[in-house]
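Mods, move this if it's the wrong board.
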Amino acid sequence: MKPAAKTAAKPASKAAAKTAAKPATKPAAAKPAPKAAAKPASKPTTKPATRPAAARGAKAGTRASATKPGDPHAHAFEARLRRHLPDVAKGLADLYPGAVEETLFRLTDLARAGYAARPAALKLRDLDALVNPDWHQQPNQLGYAAYADRFAGTLQGVRERVPYLANLGVTYLHLMPLLRPRPGESDGGYAVMDYRSVREDLGTMDDLAQLADTVHGAGMALTLDLVLNHVAREHEWAVKARSGDPKYREYFHLFADRGLPDEYERSLPEVFPDFAPGNFTWDDEAKAHVWTTFNAWQWDVNWHNPDVFVEYADIVLNLANHGVDCLRLDALAFMWKRLGTACQNQPEVHAITQALRSIAKIVAPALIFKAEAIVGPDDLLPYLGLGKHTSKVSELAYHNSLMVQIWSALASGDGTLMERALGRFGAKSPTAAWGTYVRCHDDIGWAIDDGDAAAIGSNGYLHRAFLSEYYSGDAPGSPAQGLVFQENPATGDRRISGAGASLCGVEAALAAGDADALNLAMRRFILAYAMAFGFGGIPLVYMGDELALTNDYSFAGVPEHAADNRWVHRPRMPWDLADAAVAWFGDSHDLRVASASWMHRSIAHFGRVRASLPGMHAQFETRVETTSNPALVLFIRDTHEQRIVQVYNVSARRQSVSPAEVPVPDSARDALSDSHKWNFVGFGEFTLEPYAHAWFVV
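Not the wrong board. Structure tokens:
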């Protein structure tokens, strides 16, 4: 979605006018925002822009008391209101300095309506969360991410498969975008047409609430995506904006000519240069250039308008009252627009998150946020809270750098860059946790910092090129079978799509029927997951990885998927293989079943071992070191209760170092194999086989 030279309408309030004209925190280079092309809406009301539907059964815009006669939780709600409302106000002050009181009044009304409609079972869940606020940091956490339809067809189908997840050890279930998307192409569901309904083929909002009940009963938390940066062109707000409604035109960045869009473009990167170049799209109906960061049919919303904030606060509470425990805040890095910048990672993003989270803590303390901020190391930690936002924004964030460095180390057989890159991270908020992962639904962008590369005597540009060559299978000797995604000749950027197992060589080995190559590829893939599980935080298993599923090339035959090769690693769950893998006892010579079972058992084993180690609590940080042998990487966790020293051989060859370089006594136990350090020492050297790993506990 692209801001235009002139917005199509003036802000709906004086506060909106101020924020549209200049950022809340004015940068030195900032220029006034465009003058609106249409008459502004009349004086703002004190009620939400649309009637609140903060929960099942909540009546819109009512001022009903938040508590009911005999409600045992009433006092707690009022206490939370007093506790968190100041944090809401502080966030609003950074965003809408001229409309804090008015917006706070509307949000308080919204919170009372949402709490009044919150189901009793969820209020009890809130009490559990208040007693155990660090549940998301506990060592027993194991995440699983899946598209509901590809995993089990419908939401009811997912309910039926909850025992499979429980058997794997899952405690945190993330279902990929399932709110109603636009028809046809929808960026994998991230072009949302209606935040208050579920995709029709998946079920209904009532089905979602029933699934949440089942998930909760199995000891799991439920995570859904909430897209904050944009809506589908078909969303009701965008439809009304195109019809000329001045109120809703202020929900977007609309420009009458190319003046300001061209100025913005000078500092804006392109997300999808192949099929969505640029950041602005002319819309004939709107008679304006629309800010469209991702695709022409994904309209960026205008967070400079407090009405937009109130809308999303209402959406957050509605999802929480359907039993959602965690919201993955999608594309939040892009939300705040400022001329002369990349319009990413602006400080107002953290003010928005603080205010939204504080409203949620008043109504639904069980709800937490996960930041989907795929940004560089210097920008990532603020999404977990720094300075005045410490412990007041997202409780979780993806550790994208760890993921990239795992793949980099496996390709090079060297952990030196990993040590350098991860060593630059400071301590995160003590109440936060990383989401650690090997693979996700998205492509892999090679976020290798030039400075990090130079510090170890390498060249960032050349190393990124090497990784693209290696994982596309073009490098000599590479076993990987990935696909190049969004190549940008101007920058040399070549991102990679592909299933984790295919990137590790499993696909090629299975195709060749080569048992030895398969053994090495599986060890490589298992090592990657051992590192994700060992780092700390919530390890996230992407659906199919637990069965070592390989690329699914059938996407090319689906019109709405054919142009987006990320669908190659978004397969449908082969339940016959899953059932065979779980039941396998080594009595089959089928390499596919054997590898699936091996991977499944490894994932479950990592989860059980983690759960037994207090030192894996996410409050504590992991230090990454290499030894005199750069192929041997150490993850060191020093906690109040334990020292855990993890050793990883990231190469395809046996590797050794002096036992003194593994800083635990010889009697230290490897929690993964239940053997001792002395079992790894022979002829005076500590030795690990190709892709072997150990977690020594003292």
